[in-house]
Amino acid sequence: MGRERIPIDLRHIGAKIKQARLKSKKTQQQIADQCGISKSLLSKIENGQTASAVATLSKISDALEIPLSWVLDDHPESDLVLQPKAKRQFQVDDDNMGYSYELLAKARFSNVEPTIVHVTPKDMNDRQEPYTHSQDEFIYIIEGSIYLYYDEQKHLMEKGDTAYFKGKNPHLFIPIDNDGAKVLTIFVDRQD
């Protein structure tokens, strides 16, 4: 029995981004310029009027110095974060993106973000543009196989394989077959 796939609440994401931007005392134009997007797009995201690629939300999160998973998560903040498997839900921004995300735990007090990335089957995955972000990334292949495209090279990764890399270099998980894959991803904020 699979867990329910739910769309992300765009108003909730927008409100968190706006809250963080106002707290940082930055204008929409400043954040938009820093992210390489239009002020209009940022305004629509903040008002919950449009879905945005995770890569764009990641750039906005980096610009605001907030964890992406905090933006995507709708659980109350606490010193203890419990996430029973039965209550976890998939977070999907766009079925055509090629990934869905399962946030395992997130607290604003931590610099570590554990997430399960579900890589969709090859025939359903149109994702071609690599991601970049400020955090380091550790991955562990839980199920299936992928090609890890990293810094213009393809690396075959199978169940049990791991990798650790700098997120600032372009990277992408590419499905190799129609079985898809499940990847434990841990984002780690750099301390330097």
Summarize this structure briefly.
Helices cover 24% and strands 30% of the residues. The protein has 192 residues and is an alpha+beta fold. It has two domains: 5-72, Orthogonal Bundle (434 Repressor (Amino-terminal Domain)), CATH 1.10.260.40; 111-188, Jelly Rolls, CATH 2.60.120.10.
Give a description of the structure.
The chain has 192 residues and is an alpha+beta fold. It has two domains: 68 residues, lambda repressor-like DNA-binding domains (434 Repressor (Amino-terminal Domain)); 78 residues, Jelly Rolls (Sandwich), CATH 2.60.120.10. It is built from five helices and nine strands; from the N terminus they run E-H-H-H-H-H-E-E-E-E-E-E-E-E. Strands 3, 4, 5, 6, 7, 8 and 9 form a seven-stranded antiparallel β-sheet that branches. The protein has a two-stranded parallel sheet with strand order 1-2. Strand 5 and strand 6 form a beta hairpin. Helix 2 packs across helix 3 and helix 2 crosses helix 4. The chain starts with a strand and ends with a strand. The N terminus is likely disordered. This is Transcriptional regulator, XRE family with cupin sensor. Keywords: DNA-binding. InterPro entries: Cro/C1-type_HTH (IPR001387), Cupin_2 (IPR013096), Lambda_DNA-bd_dom_sf (IPR010982), RmlC-like_jellyroll (IPR014710), RmlC_Cupin_sf (IPR011051), TransReg_Diox_bact_type (IPR050807).
